[in-house]
Design goal:
Order of helices and strands: HHHHHHHHHHHHHHHHHHHHHHH
Radius of gyration: 23 Å
Number of strands: 0
Number of domains: 1
Strand content: under 5%
Structural class: mainly alpha
Distance between the termini: 57 Å
């Protein structure tokens, strides 16, 4: 019954979107700006968002899913926006058009992430990731080698599988290897979080923020690779220092053997093919990335039909593959959280807060200072609303500055365990071994890597800055 409800919900979302969002509006309209930041209704809306985000940050203690308060807050904020638009004598549809404009941003992100999560769930079900974990555990590497192997793998897997998924997979490896060595597990988790966030910064698929930047069109697919070297520096600096705190002992080898199920390698090929098609069509056909990903989901669904038919005939098969089970296992709390945050920020933008912030940060402070502060803010508040706010402001910046804010928003969250989805997920997965305060002890080292990556970006990509004072 839950599965049927999930499928109906997805269908309703896209059908509603297609029927009620004018195509011309998405391309030509501008966000509503009431310019009433000092009014009581606007202040109330800001307080509602702040309260909702306090609940999000306290999720570990309240056990209230993070999506619930922000979805409610989004509804309250937009109701206030619509009321004020009518009260100020504006067109009765102005708030509606502004809402649809912001919803379009979410709908594209929603479709993209849903497909990516479905592919990852399918590969997990086919034992692709479990097989990798089993192989690494069974090799008998020393703790230091596993520290570096999991870190480097996290760095290079993150651009494809996203930083959250990568972190969870690599954490399973260190948990299996470390067993009772809590110090190794904690340090390895810090290393994984930093590596996954750094690796995700130079790829549109590595993090939600980079995906948002790419979908917005301010940075093309190939231009992300300009920050590859700064991203490497961001990871290497803290990892090299933490290396000396890791024991060089050899853990007990595991005899566990896990094989990839039939079709697992084909699903990997389909995933890589979907990503390639998404990139190519976006570059040459100029359709949004979600088009390529949804097409890939269709291909995966057809292949899933083959897997289902094959396993239905096999009496020894314990579970029969179903593509819609993979869809239903998507992180719905995360997807709804994105809806709530993006709509909240869009609503606050309608009051004029984004324009006010842009004027202060990008005019008074300057682009470089503002972009560096974005990374620091991302360590305290989730980087998704921060980056969405920057994209809503759309300050006039050259490519060098857009890459700087992409870098800082991506890696800035590594400074605190609550600063990124990867860190929050691993705190839950390790059950008290990797904690906020364990991470905080190494924050100075991570800040050193953050500063080094920014300095390298200014030097390595100096030609990308249009002569504007840094």
């Amino acid at each position: 019954m839950k599965l049927v409800t999930s499928i109906k919900s997805i269908s309703l979302l896209f059908i509603t979107f297609l029927l009620f969002v004018p195509a011309s509006y998405a391309a030509d309209s501008e966000l509503l700006n009431l310019d009433i930041t000092s009014s009581l209704p606007a202040i109330i809306a800001l307080m509602v968002f702040a309260l909702a985000y306090m609940f999000v940050m306290a999720e570990e203690y309240t056990h209230l899913r993070k999506s619930k308060p922000v979805v409610v807050a989004a509804g309250i904020i937009w109701a206030i926006v619509a009321y004020m638009a009518v009260k100020m004598g504006l067109d009765t549809h102005s708030a509606s058009y502004a809402f649809k404009h912001t919803f379009l941003e979410f709908a594209e992100l929603f479709g993209f992430l849903l497909v990516a999560m479905t592919f990852i769930n399918t590969m997990t079900e086919r034992n692709v990731f479990e097989s990798l974990r089993s192989w690494l555990v069974g090799q008998g590497f020393t703790f230091r080698k596993i520290f570096w192997i999991t870190g480097v793998l996290s760095f290079f897997m993150s651009p494809i599988a996203d930083n959250l998924t990568t972190a969870l997979i690599m954490c399973a490896v260190v948990m299996a290897v470390g067993k009772n060595n809590t110090k190794f597990i904690a340090l390895a988790c810090i290393n994984i979080v930093v590596a996954a966030n750094a690796g995700g910064a130079f790829s549109p698929f590595g993090d939600i923020t980079t995906l948002m930047v790419w979908q917005k069109g301010v940075v093309t697919f190939t231009e992300f690779f300009y920050i590859f070297v700064p991203s490497v520096v961001n990871y290497i600096v803290p990892a090299a220092i933490m290396h000396f705190a890791i024991s060089d002992e050899k853990p007990e080898a595991s005899k566990e053997k896990v094989t990839v199920k039939y079709g697992g390698y084909t699903v990997i090929f389909l995933f890589l093919g979907t990503i390639s098609f998404t990139v190519i069509q976006h570059q040459f056909l100029h359709l949004p990335p979600v088009f390529g990903m949804m097409t890939g989901l269709g291909v995966l669904s057809i292949y899933g039909y083959h897997l289902k038919s094959r396993e239905s005939k096999d009496k020894n098969t314990k579970s029969i593959f179903n593509i819609f089970n993979m869809v239903s296992k998507a992180e719905w709390d995360t997807l709804l959280f994105f809806y709530g945050v993006l709509m909240c920020v869009g609503g606050l933008s309608a009051f004029g807060y984004m324009a006010l912030t842009a004027s202060f940060m990008y005019v008074d402070l300057g682009a470089s200072t503002a972009n560096i502060l974005v990374g620091i803010l991302s360590a305290i508040v989730d980087n998704i609303p921060v980056m969405f706010a920057v994209l809503t402001m759309m300050p006039q910046m050259d490519l060098g500055q857009w890459l700087l804010v992409t870098l800082t928003a991506g890696v800035g969250g590594s400074m605190l365990s609550i600063g990124s989805a990867a860190g929050v997920a691993l705190m839950g997965q390790t059950k008290g071994i990797y904690t906020f305060f364990t991470h905080l002890k190494w924050t100075p080292v991570i800040i050193l890597g953050y500063a080094a990556s920014i300095a390298v970006h200014f030097l390595w990509n100096a030609t990308l800055f249009d002569g504007v004072p840094l």
